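Hey, can you fold this one?
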Amino acid sequence: MSFCFNFDVPAQTINPDDVDGNGPQNVKKDNAAASKQEDTKPAEPVKEAQEHHPPSDPQFLLMDAVSETVTIGTLPTLHFLNETVFEKTASEREDGEKILSRTVEQRSDLIPGVYEGGLKVWECTYDLLELIEKDGETFGGKAVLDLGCGAGLLGILALKRGARHIHFQDYNSTVIEQLTVPNVILNCQEDDDIETEDDKERRGKGKIQEEDGCKNKLKEKEGVKDGSPSPKKSAVDLSQHPLLAKCRFFSGDWSTFPALVQKTGQQPKYDIILTSETIYNTAYYPALHDTLHKLLAPDGLVYLATKSHYFGVGGGLHLFETFVEQRGTFSVDHLWDGNEGLQRHVVVLRFKMPKDT
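Sure. Predicted structure:
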């Protein structure tokens, strides 16, 4: 969505030396992260986590949808709803949280405790995609969580690259229902030719078969409207698509999310947790850290893409690293550091080994 950086939070004093993102952070002490939490914590009630199930007829979510694509190196092409069109059609969409109208009216990318930015694809998402392409992570057979997923591009990539199952989580139910789920469905129907690892094995043995409702689909091409980035397609019975069957969708506050996931039987542990631009508010650090601690597999990895500092909301990588160091649970290693403009980073978190503590 074409929003400006207009954060609906109490005004804060910003050091002019920091406006280019390269000056000193407004942090001098190790306990700065803890002290900032009280300043930025929204006064909204906790949003209970809930699971969202794709509709039995998911095609209606893509009626009159206009998509765009992103392709990075050798990565599979990712499809997602065009942000501008999504914004213009906001009034036509179901929105029990009333965030679509509020974000458009206020032209705001963030309303803490109400809307947490999930309708926009943020820059650091592309940084993480590029790193995944460079490092060659295939996700084959792994359990993956896209935390703070928004449009869901990171989780969709894992889906296309052979993850065993993928869970998508975002703060807002509207984001999950109106953006994340449609984007996953869009990629299922646009990329019907994607094969699972089992499919590839069977094909190698000459045993692969086309399956009704999965591979053997009717497609119809339509003209591109108003210069939209890509044509629309339709498919039969997407609700039975094998890729969609690997996905689960959740919304709500991080403080309530682990308990909901753990109610589903055996406590899940994710091999990989992907998260982008989720450490902008220090008030959320305890819940985020607790979620990672509870849900990451013992030898799992958390890939985090972020900016050095988020002006207007106060968080950033330095504060988060300080917070993590104080907790003593995870180590943080830098995988990529961008030095142009407002500095961006991709880091990996893993559980500390006994010798590291």
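Residues 1-39, 193-236 have pLDDT under 50 and may be disordered. Let me know if you want another pass with a different chain boundary.
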